[in-house]
Amino acid sequence: MANVVWTKEDILALLEAYSDRYQQFNIGNFRPLDWDYVLLSVNAKKQPGMLGKTRQQVKNKMENMKKKYRQEKGAHTPGLPVKWSYFNDMDRIFGNNLRVLQTLDAENTAPVPKSIVKPEEGCSPSTPVIEVHLSVDLKESEELLPESTCLVDEEALPATSVQVENAPDIHSNSSARRGKKRRHNSYYSPAKALAGAITKFGELCTQLERDRAEREERRTEREERRQKENADREERILKMQMDMQLRLAELFTLGQKPNRGAPTGEEVKK
Question: Which of 81, 90, 146, 147 could staple 69 via S-S, CB 3.0–4.6 A?
Fold first, then answer.
């Protein structure tokens, strides 16, 4: 697979977005949501005509930057300038967190030390991962292998880490668990606030819909009463008209017949 081209603007955008997320939530093991934030920031500043990066490419590049920083940190002599142009940016992020990034000597060819690191996303918590630090010369244009077997993706490169059975439990320390819980709470507090706002909005929409349905029902009832009253009124008017016609017909019929109760002339002579 061809190497991914990272310009200076891409790397600076990567470090800026990673630093924002890392310092804001105080987390070292990014979740997919965090990597998506970094990915969007990187692709937003890409040069025209260049392809956008993927989440796995961003992960791999950041892991390689960490490796390079550890080597430069181990080989750095206080008071002397550092040739690597991104050393100061990386030092601002990880300079005070040596437990996450251990200092290595770039010129040391002795057996490489191993340290237990926190499993990456998707790995079983009970199976820690051994992180193997390789003492090699890195170039800024090289796309190295990811550090953990947990970074599995279609575009992921082969892993440089191995899983070891019967490794010590990294979650056994109660203080570490408490710190992790605090970070977890601080990370999910915006999500909880958003979920609460969505719930309240849903309740408001439900109440508005219920009120609208009640108004519509009352309007329908009023319309039905009005139609019924109109029908009753028309029925009464029609009945009155029919009664009037019957009375007129009776009066007209009585006016045409002779009055049999009155005496005639012959009856008067007799």
Answer: 90
Q: Which domain holds residue 237?
A: 173-254
Q: How many domains does the chain have?
A: 2
Q: Are residues 81 and 201 in the same domain?
A: no
- CA pair distance 228, 222, nearest whole angstrom: 10
Residue 117 near residue 129 (C-beta atoms within 8 A): yes
In a domain, 81, yes or no: yes
Say how far apart CA 214 and CA 219 lie, in whole Å. 9
Q: What is the chain's pLDDT, residue by residue, as a tens digit (270 residues)?
A: 556 788 888 888 888 888 888 877 766 678 888 888 888 888 887 777 778 889 899 899 889 988 988 888 888 777 788 888 888 888 888 876 654 454 433 333 344 444 444 444 444 444 444 443 433 344 443 445 444 333 434 343 443 333 434 444 444 455 666 665 565 555 557 777 788 889 888 988 998 999 999 999 999 999 999 999 999 999 999 999 999 999 998 888 887 655 555 555 555 555
Q: Report the alpha-carbon distance of residue 161 to residue 150 in Å, rounded.
A: 9
